[in-house]
Sequence to fold (124 residues):
Amino acid sequence: VQLQASGGGSVQAGGSLRLSCAASGGTVNSYTMGWFRQAPGKEREFVATIRWHGGTTYYADSVQGRFTISRDNAKNTVYLQMNSLKPVDTAVYYCAAGRAITSTSTTSRGYDYWGQGTQVTVSS
Fold:
């Protein structure tokens, strides 16, 4: 399975972006899909997960109410809609897929596949 993340860019605080993570080379309908982010000089941080089967979602407290994770079965794609963006959201965002990841897991360990990352920059 290959994951291709896209949709990053530069926005002002309060703006919105939608990230996409397209899966190819196999099916991910039994996986948990996750979004993580990593700011310069910081460790990779959990953002959100979604169980492909059933659609159960889980969010980091820092993005709860502002970000929404969703998936499109027909397109084999996971999305991260990011609203009310803040400068602290600036980071490289990565998507990942894991078969053995629970829906409330916040660790980056255990994922089977990772996308290449997409830069999100929020200016004040």
Remarks:
- The CA atoms of residues 32 and 51 lie 4 Å apart.
- The mean pLDDT is 95.
